[in-house]
Amino acid sequence: MVVAALEAGAMRLVAADPKALSLGLRPRLGLADARARVPAIEVHEHEPEVDLALLRHIADWCDRYTPVVAEEMSDTLILEIAGSVHLFGSEARLCEDIERRLAGFGFTARTAIAGTSLCARAVARFDGGGIIRAGKERESVSALPVAALEMEEETTLALRRAGLMTVGDVAARPIKPLAARFGGEFVRRLAGVIGEVDPPLHPRRPLPLLSSEQRFADPIGLEEDIATAFDGLSHDLCTALEQQGQGGRAFEATFFRADGATRRIEALVGRPLRDPAALKKLFMTRLDALADPVDPGFGFDMIRLCVLAGDKADGEQIRFERDAMEEGAVTDLVDRLTARFGLSAVERFLPVDSHVPERAARRVSAITDAKERGKWQAGHAGEPPLRPILIFTPPQPVETIAEVPEGPPYRFRWRHVLHEITHAEGPERVSPEWWKSEKEPKTRDYYRVEDRQGHRYWLYREGLYAREAGDVRWFLQGLFP
Asked: In angstroms, what CA-CA distances link 440 with 89, 233, 444, 475?
C-alpha cells in the first residue's frame, strides 16, 4: 500500500507501508514508475488535513507526559521532559512507556532524547532513535547523512557534490564559508543538530501557571471516584497557590482515558480562588451541566488539574460585616451559575459615559470582565431612584394628555390601558447626542410619574414645541419597582 499526491504536475509517492518499502518503493518516486516496478499496489490519495488531525490527537494524548508539547512538520512531536523523567524513574522507561502505549493504539513510533530538539529529531529519523547523553550530541550525529540536517533538496545536493556526505563532514568545516554559501539558517540548524544551540520550542497550548495530576494504576470511571480524585487535586493546587500568594482565575481539568482519548474542561471564576472545597464543587457542577458528558469509556488512567490564569490574592481575614458576606455570596453564585449554564449566560452591566438611557450601560460577561469597574450615579439616601432599573429598548410609544404643552402628562394610554397620573416629577432634560446618530436627534424631557394604583413609570417627551422640527411624541422608557 502506498499514499500518493500531486506534486509538480505528476503523482508521486508520499508514504509506503513496510512491504512496499521492502520492494524498493520510496517516497517521491513517481506513481507511474512505482506501478511499473510493482503492478499490484494499493494506492490511496494523500489527505494532509487528516494526517494533521491525527498528529494533534496524539499531541493531546502526549500531554500526559508534559504540558510542553510542540508540533513539528507533519510527523514529529517535540516534548520537553526535563520535569517529567522522575515520574517514570528514568529516560529509558519514559521512552519505553511512550512506545508501548502507542503500539497498543496501532502506531509505530521512534523516540529519541537529546539536549536539543533538532538533535533528537535527527537521531529519531535517521538513526532509529535512542538516548543521547549530554555532551555526546556531536559524536552521536557525526555519522548521519547530510539529509539529517533536513535542508532544501538543492542544499543537500550541493553538500554531496562538495564531498560532504555526513553531518560530521559538514561540522568539521569552518563556519564562515558555510554561512556565506548556504545562509544563516543552515548554520543555525547545523548548530542545533550537533547540540550547540537549542532553538526555542513553540508549545501548541499555553503553559499552565501551576498543575497537579494524579495517575491511577486501575482506570476509574465512577463519579464518586472522580470526586475523590478532585479532593486531592484541589487541595494540592490551592496549597501551591496560597504559598505563592496567588488565586486562580481560570482552571482546566484534563481527563486522559485509557484508550488514548483526551477531554478538557475549563472553569472561570470572578475573583481569585484558592479554596479547595469551592474549586472541587465548581468542577463537579461543571461536569454535571455538560451538554456533551465526559464519557469515561474504559476509565481514566490520569486526571490533571491546572491553573491557566491567576491573580494576586492576599491572605483572607474573616469579616463579619453583612456587606462583605453578601459580596462573597454573590460572587460564589455567579461562579456556580457560569459553571452550569456557560460563560455567555451570566452577564452584568457596566456604566457608559452617555446621557441617553439606552446607551448608558452595556452588558458584559459577569466573569471575564470582573476586573472592570464603573462608577454608577449614586442616589440620595431615602429617596427613590432617579432612573429605573428596568428600561425598554426601544422605548414604547404611548398616547398622553397634558394640561399644558410643555408640562407633565395628565394621563396616558399604554397597551390599551388608560393610566391616571396622580404625581409627577420633572422634567429631566436630556440633550441629543447628534454626533452618534445619522438622523437628526431630538431633545427629551423625562418625567417620573405615579398612577392611581401606585405604579410608577418613566415617561419622556421627544421634541420641543415650535423649536424642533417634526411631531412631538411621548414614550414609556422604563418601570420603577
From this structure: 76, 61, 13, 18
Instruction: Give the up-direction half-sphere exposure of residue 123: CA atoms within 13 A in the CB hemisphere.
Output: 27
**CATH fold for the domain made of 210-318:** Dna Ligase; domain 1 (3.30.1490)
- CATH 3.30.1490.100 range(s) for the chain read 210-318
CATH architecture of the domain with range 2-46: 3-Layer(aba) Sandwich (3.40)
* Torsion sign over Cα 261, 283, 364, 446: positive
Q: Where in the chain is the domain with CATH 3.40.1170?
A: 2-46
How confident is the model over 112-135, as pLDDT tens digits?
999 999 999 999 999 989 999 988
Q: Rounded CA gap, 58 and 256, in Å? A: 12
State the amino acid at position 356 in one-letter form: V
120: enclosing H helix or E strand: helix 117-126
Give the torsion through C-alpha atoms of 172, 178, 182, 183, to 10 deg. 120
SS3 for 139-186 is: HHHCCCEHHHHCCCHHHHHHHHHCCCCEHHHHHCCCHHHHHHHHCHHH
Q: Is the entire prediction scored with pTM above 0.90?
A: no
The mean-pLDDT minimum among 59-68, 371-380, 395-404, 415-424 falls in 371-380
Angle at CA of residue 316, ends 343 and 333, nearest 5°: 30
* pLDDT tens readout for residues 78-91: 999 988 898 899 99
